[in-house]
Amino acid sequence: MAIIVSCLSQKGGVTKTTMARLLAHAYASAGWRVKICDFDLKQKTATEWGARRMENGRKPEIEVQGFAGVPQALSQAAHYDMLVCDGRGFADTLTLELAQASHAIFLPSGLANDDLAPTVRLAHELKKAGVPARKLAVVLARTGDSAREIDDARDYISQAGYKVLSRTLSERQGYRLAHDAGRSAGEATHFTLRIAAKNLADEMAEHITENTKDEA
């Protein structure tokens, strides 16, 4: 039965799909059977990326499929080692359903209060609805060069009572170009960007392992 991982957000534009693609590529590269479940049927960002990846013959192959509901996606679990669920660009009942079905949940956020506050609100809402806080991990993304700004954002999340990963993902042209070509951030052409993305993927994997080790 597949491990279920979700990338969720209260708003769009916080690299939710970037994280889903990065994670799927990391596990697929390790030989896992991985499928990305795209729940944003209007934007179809992950689905269209999957099509570009296939057209360009990228390896490893990563299957991407759109789903309107959580039960339909979970019906695929027996055929894969991991389902990476890319939620909608807003929080709704489907967001809660995904969170409740997931072994681990990533909440990407930018550094501005406009991103941080909605992220914390979503974490509070999920926790109030019965989702264990230990499953949640905030990922800081679209970061710049200010270590102080990153530290302030990390403190904001920590003081709210939630885990925030130590690795971040910066805003770089190289990542955008990779996505345009059907690659993940972990397949960026520039070595430094590729390593930074790999380090983040490794830390995300550690969070997943922490939340699934009792089921192994």
UniProtKB/TrEMBL annotation:
InterPro entries: CobQ/CobB/MinD/ParA_Nub-bd_dom (IPR002586), DNA_Partitioning_ATPase (IPR050678), P-loop_NTPase (IPR027417). It comes from the Bacteria. Pfam families: CbiA (PF01656). Transmembrane segments: none annotated. Residues 8-175 form the CobQ/CobB/MinD/ParA nucleotide binding domain. This is Chromosome partitioning protein.
